[in-house]
Amino acid sequence: ALPYKGLIYVIGGSDQMFMTYSPTNDQWTQLTRPTLSHLGAPAVILDGKVWLAGGMRHGVAGHECHKTIECYDLEKRQWSISEVELPMGITNHMALLTPVVVNNKV
Hints:
Layout: E1 2-4, E2 7-12, E3 17-22, E4 27-30, E5 43-46, E6 49-53, E7 56-59, E8 62-65, E9 69-73, E10 78-81
């Protein structure tokens, strides 16, 4: 679950559900699912976008790891595939956001 601007974003499951929960209104809202399956992939919110990196997808030979990075623009409400890929297909990994300090500013 990813908190952002008063909402909680939830993504995952075998059918890649993507939804928000508003604690203020006690209401769930269904959002557009990602283009690809990202089973076992971490999700982070950065610069107003939800990022999914790698994970498993169903292929011809069963489930296979992939290196695709996909992002959901929270303002435009649409998914896109990043031009950048992971160096290899991975799943069940973590993604961490850490502050970056430039000129003594975070």
